[in-house]
Amino acid sequence: MRPLIFAANWKMHIPPAEARAFAKHFLGSVPLAQGRTLWFFPPAVSIEATAEAFRERPDIHVGAQDVHWEPKGAFTGAISVPLAQGAGAVGALVGHSERRHVFGETDEETGRKVRALLASGASAMLCVGEKLAEREAGETEAVCLRQLRAGLAGVAADLWSRVLIAYEPVWAIGTGRNATPADAAVVHRAIRAELGRLGGPPGIPILYGGSVNKGNAQALLAERQIEGVLVGGASLDPAGWAEIVTTY
Ligand code: 13P
Predict the structure, then answer these.
(1) Cα Rg of the chain (Å, integer)
(2) Per-residue pLDDT tens over the stretch 191-210
(3) Of 168, 188, 194, 227, which is the active-site residue?
(4) Which candidate in 61, 96, 188, 227 is catalytic?
(5) Does ligand 1 come within 6 angstroms of the Cβ of 63?
(6) I need a labelling partner for 50 at 20 to 30 A (CA). Which of 27, 79, 90, 173 fits?
(7) CA distance 110 to 246
(8) Residue 96: active-site member
(9) Whose CA is closest to atom 1 on ligand 1?
């Protein structure tokens, strides 16, 4: 089986006690499997409980949903990379569409966050994706590649091994409308080519996200350009998420 990554973005759901219960249930039905890596991105308050609950499993990583680029300081409400690491996170999402479009995160800020994560020994899962109007205007590739270049500006050659990319078309997130495997593959190919131009080594994983569920995960992952999935709603229920993860 080719290596696949299954990433759960819990967004603003699942407090610490529920995270522990989730992990207990999930561990009972998902044994460690060769070639499969799992990520959980709980809300910041649940990072520690989640990391603790999955501590025995080398195939399961826990990350933050967002980080600030400064290591510490007067940034009320934000968490730094060292704070997230102190709670057990080994990476973070960067530039999720909700951070970009609900909270106004800029391309330039995503670059700072990626650099801060990599410099601290953590992984960065950079999210890129176009809005519906941008897709309809034929700007999908231009938008995604611009976000990619900004997010990965200045990544040192020896740090690329901790970079992951998630292509999440904004119009597909939480809408029940996913990109077709073929549509996603076109964008993944363009991302892969750009990663090469930016100096990234081959093998940087590119995940797809946006309304992935039990019904479409298999077809999406059958497309070889898609090396994993980043899932919101369908990752909130341990039985359903276990089913998606173990189908492969
Ligand atoms: P949904 O799977 O709920 O569409 O969310 C996708 C997402 O934003 C994952 O980061």
Answers:
(1) 17
(2) 999 999 999 999 999 999 99
(3) 168
(4) 96
(5) no
(6) 173
(7) 32
(8) yes
(9) 232
